[in-house]
Amino acid sequence: MSNITGDLALFNELVEALLNEEDKNPVADRIEADKLYESIDLSLNNSAMVDDEFKKVLREVLVSTPKTATNLFFNQLFGGRQGKAVLGDLLAVMLNNSMYTYKVAGPQVGIEQEIIRQSCDLVGYGAESNGTFPTGGSMSNYMALVMGRDAKDPSSRAEGVRKPLIAYTSKESHYSNAKNASFAGFGRNNVRYIEADKEGRMIPEKLEEQINKDIADGFIPTYVTSTAGTTVLGAFDPIDKIADITEKHNIWLHVDGAYCGSLIFSEKYKHLLKGMERSDSFSYNAHKMIGTPMTCSIILVKDKKYLHGSFSNDADYLYQTDGDDFNLGKTSFQCGRRNDALKFWTLWKSVGTDGLRDIVDQQFYLADVCLEYIRSNPDYTLYSFDDSISVCFNYKNIDPVTLCTALYEHQITVVGFGSFNDDTFLRLVTINATNTKEDLLNFFKVMEEFVDKNPEKLV
Known about the structure:
alpha/beta, 5-stranded mixed sheet, 16 helices
């Protein structure tokens, strides 16, 4: 059996090599998918691998994996690396607690509950609120949908869905909504996709129009998702106006803030979440705007009775001490559950709420740097708007899919593309708060130089 002390020494050696490699080569050399297994020995065999060969393979895997923490990664809704959060995640791995009972998690329960309590206060929920840490934003949305279902049709939990329950979401919302409707018994065909305005925000009047039509047709409006940061444009649905409608019709309102719900920490940009305290549930991903390692998702509920009512289940072999408030498995979708709270707590504890505010505000500053550059350069066409960290543009009318692919395949930078209405464009996400103004301007520099030197690769 390997010695943990020796393995940790190897870990430190590999991490040092990774950091040096990131510094020298911010974009990993791409391995063609059809050549992966012949490029690196990923095989699992009957015999053991000697230490030197094992270390060599691990190093090859590390340096070949896409580098999401460097200053040339702008592809995903996450990026960068917050050191104190990494520390917390490593400690959670070493402790290896499961978060379902106080008996096995101890003070880690208090750490999770403190994050939830503080988050509920920032949203504006009252004393009856609570929450949990799901496995990701899709699971947060699923849990909200289940609670909305049970609030409208309490018998469905025991008897199954027997009524025509309807869910509503924007055409620009996350793709998990359709999957979740099938899982929760609504059915995919009972999701209504509401039109968005020219900036990607749900149109409340269209929502109410659809709700009234469904009522007239004998359906039961049950659940609305309002998105705080749409996947492509980073748009914010008008929560306050949507809440006027859901309160009138007694419909569960969930705010999907997986991308940008972390604005709860920003005094400057919190107005984009106006009305969030009127929602029934609210979710955000700390592994996105806050920069913790993946995954770190939080769902908050204004009235904890719904969380307990939809997800509690007695198990004498498991819940043997301490009471429901300390046995977090009673309000979680999972039984065994890794500790995703500690990494967020170590960061929050070390920098304070003001430090989290600065992390969030920095991303909008970086987006403004990009917008100013694009607007001052006639070779660019801008498709996005202020108050978003998704910067959408095209350069010299080059096909955005071709350009993004070429930049990636030639290890220049990693950036994605997206579409809205009839337009397709590059989507640069400024979510890495460890970046600087110079890093963002460097992105444009390396992209422009690549285009100038390689016109034949862009046709």
